[in-house]
Structures are given as structure tokens and as C-alpha cells.
Amino acid sequence: FVVYVFVMAEMKSSLTEHIHRSRVSSVLNKDTKQFGKGNLFDGDEETCWNSDQGSPQWILLEFNKEVNVKEIHIQFHGGFVGKTCWLESSITGSSDLIKFHSFYPQDINQMQIFTLPELVPLSTLKVVFDNSTDFFGRVTIYKLDIYGNVS
């Protein structure tokens, strides 16, 4: 007699397929074809979202159902990295965003993983880059992925 314990809280997978709408604070020179938000999730290492100058910059993700977030994966372009960053969220039925986690990326080109201390249930996620390693406040991201599970 064997008993298998299945723990949903520990299972995680990419939640990008559950994003039904995304917005960004700005796009460099308003060139959405070359630097737009769609480049965050296209899997192409040659494309990126590049913000215009100014701080703060942000990415807002709205999910088509409530999800539980555990990790944020971000690959910045070195020299254009958010220095002081935080996450804001809301749950289904609420439009109020609440700050719930701060993180501090390294100024490197490699994928960085930011693990939350616990699963966070949400339907909207805002990633805020309060300032940047770039003098003009620009942020450049080649890949963004959100990991967790569906509620």
C-alpha cells in the first residue's frame, strides 16, 4: 500500500499563458514593433521591451483567472536594470493594487530569479522599477516570466 502526497503549493509552472492583457509604462521612441511589450514573452533572445526615459517604469499583467505567484524571472540588459523594484497585486474583483514584495536586481545580462517567501494569490500583477542603473531611467528586459500555479 503506497500513499502519494500531492502538494499543489510546491508545483509551479509558467503562468504567461494565463495573461490576457499586459501594459507597460512606456516604450522607447514609441516604437512598439521594435521595443514593445510583446517582446517580453516572445521567447526570442534578440528582442526586448525597452522603456523610454524617466522613472518609475512598470509592467502590468492581468491574468484571465486567479493565479498563485511564487517566482519572477527577469533577464535585463546590463546597464538598463531596475535597481529598486517591487511587486504590487490585486485579487479578482478589486482594482486596488497593494505593494507586497521588494527586490533588488543585479546589473547583469543574465536571467535573475526572484522567489517570493510564499505563494501570492492574485489576478493582477504590477512589476515596478522605481529607478534604473541607466542615468536616464530606461529599463530594458529581454525576457519576463512568472511562475506559480493556477488557483
From TrEMBL:
It comes from the Eukaryota. It is found in: Nucleus. InterPro entries: FA58C (IPR000421), Galactose-bd-like_sf (IPR008979). GO terms for cellular component: nucleus. Residues 32-105 form the F5/8 type C domain. Gene3D superfamilies: Galactose-binding domain-like. Belongs to the NR2C2AP family. This is Nuclear receptor 2C2-associated protein. It comes from Arion vulgaris. The lineage of its organism: Eukaryota, Metazoa, Spiralia, Lophotrochozoa, Mollusca. The gene is ORF85969.
